[in-house]
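Weekly modeling sync, notes
Attendees: S.R. (lead), two postdocs, one rotation student

Agenda item 3: backlog of single-chain predictions. S.R. asked that every request posted to the team notebook include the full sequence so nobody has to chase files. The rotation student volunteered to paste the first one in as an example of the format we agreed on. Action items at the bottom.

Example entry:
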Amino acid sequence: MDDLDNLDIMKKLLILLCFWSGSQLLAQKHYSNPILSGFYPDPSICRVGEDYYLVTSSFAYFPGLPIMHSKDLVSWHQIGHAMKRKSQLDLTGAGVSRGLFAPSITWHDSLFYITCTHVDKGGNFVITAKDPKGPWSDPVYLPQVKGIDPSLYFDGDLAYILYNSIPPDDKPLYDGHRTIRMYAFDWKNLRVNGEEIILVNGGSDFSKKPVWIEAPHIIKKDGWYYLYCAEGGTFDQHSEVAFRSRSVKGPFIPNPRNPILTQRDLDPSRPNPVTSTGHAEIFQTLAGEWYAVFLGCRPYSGPHYNTGRETFLTPVSWADGWPVINPGFKEVRYSYPVPQMQQNLFTTGVNEFAADQPFLDHFDTRELNNRYSFLRTPSRTWYNFKDKKGYLSIELLPETCSGTANIAMVADRQNHLNGQVSTRLRFQTQADHEKAGLLIFQNENHYYFLCKSADRGQPVVQLFKGPGNLHKEQGPELLTSIPLKKNNAGIILKAEVGEGGYSFYFSIKKDKWLLVRSSVDREFLSSHTAGGFTGVMYGMYATSTGQPSVNRAMFDWFEKIGL
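Predicted structure, as returned to the notebook:
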């Protein structure tokens, strides 16, 4: 045992304190938002008996479509991914914000269905499974369904598929002009039937030129078919609007009090804002209550956010025959009373994906935790747990995070606005082009890489910054390089994030942190600056930067803590 091993005791005590804090909140009969913190956008949920299953977008990350389970809507656990075989999902060459858009999960006649869009490669598809844990089928593509955001609605033994599509005759009357369309769907043979129907043209009020009507869902209540959709685009003008009809085929009349959810009219300088709310799914609990899940963002400094679009949960009420999301409040709140569940269903009392929860992995199993992701589909397995017990061993690949290939990175989401991520690394660099460490990654041009490497054969700790969009041809910028005395010693790498930005540290001896660089620009990694639909990922990453290598990096543990 070396000095660094003694840090485990303090870490475990801190984690117990964080879990106790979360338990105290729930003991007061409140849950915290977001229910899925970090990059978990476009949520879709279905209930089967007393079980709730939720799926979100994953874009170019593999495995695709994380599936969450809960019995109380408060304590969430990831049970797997819907698309984890290469035969299901090939993300080769995909940009970070391409890949899989906006899944929708439903259940009918003992079978689960997920509809989704694989942009650039195939379009809209459906997959099925008897068990939401999998295995899920290979995708069946639906070439007639042109657009994005497909969802299924079952009306007895009849089914329909709804989706966002082009304007009538593909002749937009203004930028962002779209429609909501529908086909009858043969759910036994997974194909569309009949003629395409336009349910909504433009949006809730055509005279105002509404943009990006999308993410349609239907529910039936009191003899009405309620169609509700996102509108306004997925950023700060995002909203949710509702329509209703006595027939599933329309005509659908808009709610005179639309939107039923938005934060765009609130003071942007308000404390602790939630913005960009929309892309909702409304559902009824086993106890008869109504709720909605939807995406939202937790910004700082105006429009900037690094944790991506996250999943929120609020109550829904009904007024004058229309749904009201977040009744009684204008602002989406960070805390609400827990749903009325049977007492025995309130299981753990802690949501492992809540914004205040820590995560620590000692790699003491033979499989990766479900919450980890790779960037794009790996062509082969380049990591193992066999090289050294209790370590994640990662092969150095020549591909880098600046390209569009799969890279040797095992990543989890940044879910704390103020927090830290750290990992312990054993890596003996053999050449200047070999680098391994902690990657703080937004996209191919926006990242920070804190690593152990070499400079003219001498071991160093280095911090790199991605080139940004304006200088991407120049490659990453070296911000700092600090010489090390030993090449074969274990090293802890740490990044902290807060109001001052990201700060980077390393440690070789117990409780002796050495600063690499402080207050590095965090807006550089925000979605507002970098663009796209994802959020920051924390990755254990190793690369030989275009050169062949037989070296491996050994990661002893990986940890995230809120501060």
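Discussion: group reviewed the output briefly. The radius of gyration is 24 Å.
Action items: rotation student to repeat for the remaining queue; S.R. to check formatting next week.
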